[in-house]
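User: I'm putting together a teaching handout on how multi-component assemblies are represented. Below are the sequence lines for each component of a complex, exactly as they appear in our records. Could you produce the 3D structure of the whole assembly as C-alpha cells, so the students can see both representations side by side? Please keep the chain order the same as the input.
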Amino acid sequence: MIIRCNGCEVKLKFPDESSGRKFKCPRCGHVVELPEVAASNLAEEFAPDLPEVSEPPPPDEPVKSKEEKFLDDLRLVFSSIPVVREPHEFLADLASYFELHRQKRTARLGEFDRDLRLVYASIAPGISDTALQALADRFDAWRAQIKNQLATFFAQLPADDPLRCPISLFGVMQHGRVETAHTAVLAWFLDPRKEHGFEDSVLRSLLEHLIDIAETDSIVVEKLHSEYPIEDGRLDVVIQGRLNRAEGNSSKWLVLIEAKIDAAESDRQLRKYDRWVQKVSHGREVFRIFLTPDGRPAESSEEDWIPMSFLELACVVRKKYGALTDRAGYHFLRHYLAGILKDICHWDLPIHGPDKCVDPYNFVDYLKTVHAS
Amino acid sequence: MPSLGKCLVFYFRYQPEMIKLYWNKQQPEEIADAEIHKMVNAVGNQCCEDVATFLSECGVIIERHFCRIGRCVVGKPNSTKWIVSSGIWMLSGNKPAKGNWKMQAGVSIPRNKAEIIPWIWATGKNVAEDRMVQLFGDAVKRSSDVDLPAGTVALAQIPILLSEGNGFEVASDEALAQVEKAFHSISQLHFENVYSFVKGLKG
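Assistant: Of course. Below is the structure of the complete assembly, with chains in the same order as your input.
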C-alpha cells in the first residue's frame, strides 16, 4: 500500500499486511497511521503523483536518527575502555605526543632544507675552492705590488706630513668624531676671508674636485655659513659664489656639504635641504656633497648628492698643503688633517712606513696625492 | 647551524680588495680583467646571502631573548648593510608606532672588519648611551668605538676567526653561541630600567 505522510507529504510504501498499524515517517518523524486495506487501495487510487522514498524499516524496530546511532556507538566504545587515568595524566601524554610530532616535523623540515641545499649546490654554478684560490693568488700579487708602491712613496714623504703627526686637533678634546666640530673648522678653512691666510686655496681645491678650473680663473665667495638653519634642521656648510673665467664669462655656483660621522641619515633631512635649494638656487650650478667616513651614497634624497669620504676630503685639502707651510693656519691644518686620518679613518698615526698600513690601497690613494702635489 | 661560508671567509681575508672592487665598483688598472670582476661579483653576492642567513639565525636569538624579558619584533636581515634589527619594548607597555622605536636590538657585521657585533640602541643619543654603559658595565663598547650610530652600545665584538692556511671554511656555531651569550647579559631589570629612562627622550 502507498500512503502520503501528513507531515511532509512524502509518498510512503508499506506491505499490505501492515494495515491498521502506526509508523514514524522516515523523513520528518511524523506518526503515520496506516488505514485498513480497502481504504488504502482507495488512497492509492487517488494519491497524487508524489516522489517515492525507500521503504521504511520493519515496524517492530525503533527508528533512530544518524546522531542517535552515532551516540550509541560511542557509548559502546567508551564502555569497553576501563577508566584508570586521571585527566592531567591524559593531558601530559597528549602534550608529549604533540611535542614528539613537532620534533619529527622540524627534523623533516631540516632534512628537507639540507637536501634542497645539496640539490641547489649541485645545479647552481658554485664557487669552488680552486676558483677562490685563483682569485686569492691574484689579490696577493696585487697587494704585493701596492705595498711596493707604498714603500716608494713613504721614502719620499715629507717629515711634516699629517701622516707623521701624532696629535689630532679634536682628539685631544675628546671631539675626534664630533660632526659639528669638523664641519665648523672645514667651513673656516674654506672661507678665503678668514685669518688662516690660505686665501682661496682650500676652496679652490674642493671646486677643482667638482669642476674644471684653470689657475687663472678667480673665485668669489658671496656667502659662507656653517650650521645653516633650514626648517628644523641645520645644513653643515653652505657656500654661494661665482667663478670668473679668465676668458671673461662667469658662472654662479652653490656648494652644500652635509656630513655624517656616527649619526645615521634621517628620513627626510636631505629632501628638506633639496626643497630649500630649489627655492634659492636661481639657476646656479648646485653641488651637493654627502660627506661620510666610508664615502657611502646618500639614500634619502632623489637629488644627486655626491658621495665623498673623509679620506677623499683629506686628499683634496692635502693637494694644497705643501704650498701653505708659511701661512698662519698651517699647523692648525696639519693637526686637523691628522685628526681626520686618526679619528675618522682609524689610521694608527704617526705612520712612518708601510708596516702599519692595514688597508694599503687607501694609503696609496693618499700618498699618490702627496706625491702629485 | 648555518655556516659563515667560504666566500665570507675569503671576503674578510681580502677585505681591502673586496671593498675596492665589489662595494666601490672600482676598476683599477692593476685588475683590468673582466673575468676577475665577474668572480668578485659572484663572491660578493654569495657573501651577502651567507651574511643574511647568519643574521636570520641571530634574529631568532634576539626574538627568543627579548620575548622572554619583554616584547620584540624582528625585521628581515639587510643583505647589503649586513645588519638585522628588531624593535623591543616592555612587557607592560604598548608597541610603539612604526618608525618610533624607543629601543632596538640587533646584530651587525661591519663590512670592513671581521667581527660580529650584537648591539642595543636607545633613543636619546649620548644620554641613552651613558645610561646603558653605566648599567651594563665595562663589557659594553660605546658607539664611537665600533662605528655605530650614537645611542648604540656594542654588547660584544666577536671576531670571525679566519683559519690560517689555504682553507676557506669557518663554522658559525661558536659565533652564534657568543651572540646568544651577549644578549643574555641584558636582564629584564636592566632592559626595563633603560626603557623607562629613554621613553621620554628624543633623537
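A couple of points students might notice: The helical segments of chain B are 6-13, 15-23, 34-69, 125-136, 143-146, 173-184, 188-198. Chain B has a mean pLDDT of 89.
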